[in-house]
Write a structure and sequence with these properties.
- With 267 residues, the chain is α+β, with helices and mostly antiparallel strands.
- It is 18% helix and 34% strand.
- It has four helices and 15 strands.
- The strands form three sheets. Strands 1, 2, 3, 4, 5 and 6 form a six-stranded mixed β-sheet that branches. Strands 10, 11, 12, 13, 14 and 15 form a six-stranded mixed β-sheet that branches.
- The longest helix is centred in the middle third of the chain and has 19 residues.
- 31% of the residues are buried.
- It binds zinc ion.
- The site of zinc ion has 8 residues, from loops.
Length: 267
Amino acid sequence: MERSKIKGIIQKGKGLAFLFHKDRLVLMVDGASLRLPLVGELPVSKQGRWFGIHQRLDCFVSPLPKAFPLPETTRLLSLRQLFGQIEDPLYILAGRASQILNWDLGNQYCGCCATPMEEKAGEIAKICPSCRAISYPRLSPAVIMTVERRDEILLGRSPHFPKEMYSTLAGFVEPGETLEQAVQREVKEEVDVEVEDIRYFGSQPWPFPHSLMVGFTTKYAGGNITPDPTEIEDARWFPRDAMPKLPSRISIARKLIDNFLVRTPLN
Ligand SMILES: [Zn+2]
C-alpha cells in the first residue's frame, strides 16, 4: 500500500485513470467497445490517488477536473450502466475506486476537531495531525436473503423499484448484531415472518455508495406476510414457475434467486 503516499504525483502514460464526474465514470470509446483512459490521456486532478494494481498497471482514482471539456471520444457511465461494458475485474475496481473517492472527498477534515486531514503513510487512510484520529474508507455491511417455503420464495418490492419488479429482502446490519441476527430481524421487521436454517451464500461489494452485501438463504419458520409499509409496498410468495420481473444479473439478489430456481424443491 506504499503507493498511497504518491497522491498527486501521477505520471503520463503510467497506469489506468478512474476519473469520475459526480457518480459517473469517464470511458474512452475504442472502436465498438469502451476502455479506461490511461493516465495522461485525460487530466487527473491533484486529488488523484493510487488505489490498486491491475495487470501490472497502477490504478488511480480522481474527480474529473472542473470545467474540463471531455473529447467526443469519451462517454460518461454510472456504475450501474457500466456493468457488462468492461471486464469484470475492471468493473470491481471501478466500484472500489468510487468508494475510495467518495470517502476521500467526504473526509477532508477531521470529524473530531475539524483540522484538515493528512494522508496516513502505508495504507489507504487519513490521520488528523492535531488529535491523531484516523479515518478509513467506510464500509456498511448489509444482509440480503431468500426466504424459501417448499417451491416458493418470498419476494418484496420497495416503492422505488422499477415497475412490477420484486426482489429479495435486505437491510443494514446494526451495531452489536451478528449477521444471522440481522437476517432474522430484517425479515421480521419488513414482512413479519420468522425464518430458520440461515446459511451463508456469498457476498458482493455494492458501491452504492459503500455497502458490502452478505447473502444468505433461509427457510420459512412461521408468520403471515404483513409488509411494513414504510419499506415494502408489497410482498408475496412466488412459485418457482411464476417469477415476477427480477433485478439485474449484476446483483447478488438475482444470484440468490437464480440459485433458488435451479435447486430441487425443498420439502
Ligand atoms: Zn482531529
